[in-house]
Amino acid sequence: MQHSSLVVVGSLNMDFVVQVDRLPAPGETTLGGNFQMIPGGKGANQACAAGKLARCGRVSMVGCVGLDPFADHLKASLAAAGVDVSTVRAARQTPTGVALIWVEKSGQNSIVVAPGANAMLAPGDIESARATFEGSRCALFQLETPLETVEAALRAARAAGALTILDPAPARPLPAELLSLVDVLTPNESEACILLGRDPSRVNVADAAEIARAVRGLGPKAVVLKLGDQGCFYSDGHLELAVAGFAVEAVDTTAAGDTFNAALAVALSEDVGIEDALRFANAAAALSVTRLGAQASAPSREDVDAFMARPVA
Ligand code: RIB
Known about the structure:
Blueprint: E1 6-9, E2 13-20, E3 35-40, H1 42-53, E4 59-65, H2 69-80, E5 83-90, E6 97-104, E7 109-114, H3 123-128, H4 130-133, E8 138-141, H5 147-159, E9 163-166, H6 176-179, E10 184-185, H7 189-196, H8 208-216, E11 222-226, E12 232-235, E13 240-243, H9 256-269, H10 274-289, H11 301-309
Parallel strand pairs: 1-4, 1-8, 2-6, 4-5, 8-9, 9-10, 10-11
Antiparallel strand pairs: 2-3, 6-7, 11-12, 12-13
Alpha-D-ribofuranose binds near residues 13, 254 and 294.
């Protein structure tokens, strides 16, 4: 295994989590379980999971928080996972991002994000963090920070020779110029449909190959279509692969996609082949689903290795 070095550019949120029997209907008040605050944010979740999964090398987070206790808590959570937070800027007069999350018994969730300081992450922050990209093998992005900043960061990562992996979440249509800077785009089915301007309610797993090819036609070099417990489908124009998922008892699907991306980046930066890297990512995501919370659910490398090595019944 070679020395790996990953950069994550994105959001940090404090997640306010309540477990519920079922999601409330519009206008309805329901009683839920205990309230919990758990470190989250798509960017920070990816950094935390990468920190726990990487065997060696540095994982760095580029982001923006407020000047409040949530910021301290979020940075401490990343630091505990071995992530370098020296490029997480503190913005004055803007609170740290928060997310309100309801988790159903089935493990499904609903999330509303108040971006706060995440919206203050600017192209200038990427310029200030330019040295962080130097020597990195892989850089991870999502869409909870301004699009112009994501694009500036993609350019910085490309200039440094890093493999760029973009999780297009929360979903939105993206300009072709930005997509052309992406090496691996990792939508789930509904995100893929939004990118393609299709109706997400009509998606079928049987259409995975066609959807992945269509998304690749938008500009990224390769697409990994994430299919939840069904695994994922990979397409890069030369190679197409369906990689099966792992059946687990779902407790909370929050951050499963973030854990998948982190694991994929860790494996690719260790020169693992694409099929094994996707299998490793499926396993890490499956394990994260068995635990409540975002960063709290990110598995260690030992957990994932043991899970993959277990005898299959
Ligand atoms: O992907 C899960 C994350 O989405 C949560 O941690 C929440 O903060 C939102 O960003």
